[in-house]
Structures are given as C-alpha cells and as structure tokens.
Amino acid sequence: MVTKETVRDPADADVTRADSLAREIFAGVANKWTLLVINVLEQRTLRFTELRTEVDGISHKMLTQTLRHLERDGLVDRTVYAVVPPRVEYQLTEAGQALRSTVNRMCAWTRTYLDHIEAARLRFDSMS
Amino acid sequence: MVTKETVRDPADADVTRADSLAREIFAGVANKWTLLVINVLEQRTLRFTELRTEVDGISHKMLTQTLRHLERDGLVDRTVYAVVPPRVEYQLTEAGQALRSTVNRMCAWTRTYLDHIEAARLRFDSMS
DNA sequence: CTGCATCCCGCATGATACTG
DNA sequence: CAGTATCATGCGGGATGCAG
C-alpha cells in the first residue's frame, strides 16, 4: 500500500532539507576563529577580554562576531552581570562541549602529524 | 659568542616553533573546502571532475587550489596517468585518513545536534 | 568592560579564457 | 580532462570611534 513507482518518500524532502541545513551548519562551524574559540573555552568560563587574549591573533570585532554566532547556535552560554563595568562570561553548552571534543581530536591530529607534514612540504617544495 | 642574559631553555625555541607551526597547520586545514574535500575522499580514489561534482558548490579554481594544498601537506596522493585525455586520480594518504576520521566525527556532531541548533536559532532570532 | 556601527583595504574566491 | 593565468569583485576582517 505504500509505494508506487517513482513516488518519493515524503521524508525525502526532510532529508534534503536536513542535508542542506547540515552543510550550512558544518560550513559555519568549520572556520579558524570559531574552532579556536571553542577550543580555548574548554570546560572553563571566560570573560570577553580573557578570550581576546587567549585566542591569540583574534580582533575585537571577529571575537564579537564569532561569539554571537556561537550563541545563536546554542553552542555557548552568555551570562551578563548587571554591574559596572559590565561583566560578561562565556561558557560552552553541552552541544558546544560535544563539538569541542571533536576539535580536540583535530588538534591532536595536528600534533601527531606535525613532522610528517613538515617533511612532506619540504619534499614538495624541493620539486617544481 | 652566545649571549647570556635571559637564557632560555634551548627546547623552548622548538616548543614555540612547533606551536606556531601547529597553529598554522590547524588554521590551514580548518576551512570549509579543505574539510569537505577530505570528507568526500573517504577511502575512495576520485578524479578531478568527480570531486568537482561531489563537493557540491566548489569552483574549478578552489578545487585545484585545495588539492595542491593537501598534496603539499602530504594528505592526498596525486596520480597522473600519461594518457589522452589526461587522467588524474586523488586519494587520501594515511595522514589524510587520520584527519578524515576527525572530520567524520564533526559531521556526526552536526547531524546529532541539527535540531538542537535549529531550535536555538529560532529562540535566539525571536528575541531582539 | 563590552558591544555596535562605520569606514576601508586586501585577499580569497569566482568567472573566463587559453594550453597540453 | 586537467591545469594555469588573468581579471573583476565581494566580503572578510582590521581600525577606529561612540554608547551603555
């Protein structure tokens, strides 16, 4: 009673929707600053300025932008204290922690293959 | 002669060098196209055009660029067959495979938290 | 301290065309 | 089919200033 010929499962629409959304999320998360911010925010709670100094080369603007993005996606919690001067703290949510664990593996990979990659580059560059 | 004064452990130089190199490699790899290419190149061997169609939105130029980068770092092997028309095949090296497994986890993460993130966005956007 | 808006530059990216 | 070169440009991202 279900199928007939080339009729497509109604769920197909959802599949493609989910796919494109997944791609979008993946692309949004797969960038230098986002991953670096997530990485320094391991189980700690940090303030804006602390993040600014820990993430190394990040600019004021990009940090704000990245944090807004992460907050919107529910990967970090933003806590504002009504004091003066303002105090705002950021910490990873459960989803953020989950992502961080994958980022950690990527960092580990980098460390593991450091020499390997360096050697490959020398080899490659010595050609031409 | 060698200067004294702020004498630092000789190993320190290597540590910071390795650190900056690691950051550079991480940053180089942490971008949309690179991760997507690595992802579609799971244990398969693909030709240029096949990659072009599978990676979805990637342009001819960016694919070439990304592949050269990956090849230089020793993450993909490039095999050229001296035939006409030319046939060039790409496949992940062991290092590439290792990286791919981390990318896979990231993809899995995306799928797992899809709904979570979508909901967070709706919540966030409904504010203002 | 944190956040937002504005201006501006340069690079990354895309489009196109040409070789082997 | 695969790769390179050239040109145009849009957007990322830095600097600065102002507000709360």
Short synopsis of the structure:
By secondary structure, chain A is mainly alpha-helical.
List keywords for this structure.
homodimer; 128 residues; mainly alpha; Arc Repressor Mutant, subunit A; 3-stranded antiparallel β-sheet; DNA-binding
CATH class annotation of chain A? Mainly Alpha
Overall geometry of chain A comes to flat
CATH fold title of chain A: Arc Repressor Mutant, subunit A
Low-pLDDT segments, ≥5 res of chain A: none
User: Structural class, from helix and strand content of chain A?
Assistant: mainly alpha
Number of helices of chain A: 5
Number of strands of chain A: 3
Helix content of chain A: 55-70%
User: What would you give as the CATH superfamily of chain A?
Assistant: Winged helix-like DNA-binding domain superfamily/Winged helix DNA-binding domain
Oligomer: homodimer
Instruction: Name the chain pair whose interface involves the most residues.
Output: A-B, 41 and 42 residues
Which CATH architecture of chain A?
A: Orthogonal Bundle
Major sheet details of chain A: 3 strands, antiparallel
Number of domains of chain A: 1
Kindly provide the radius of gyration of chain A, computed on alpha-carbon positions and rounded to a whole number of angstroms.
Answer: 21 Å
Spatial sequence of strands, sheet with the most strands of chain A: 1-3-2
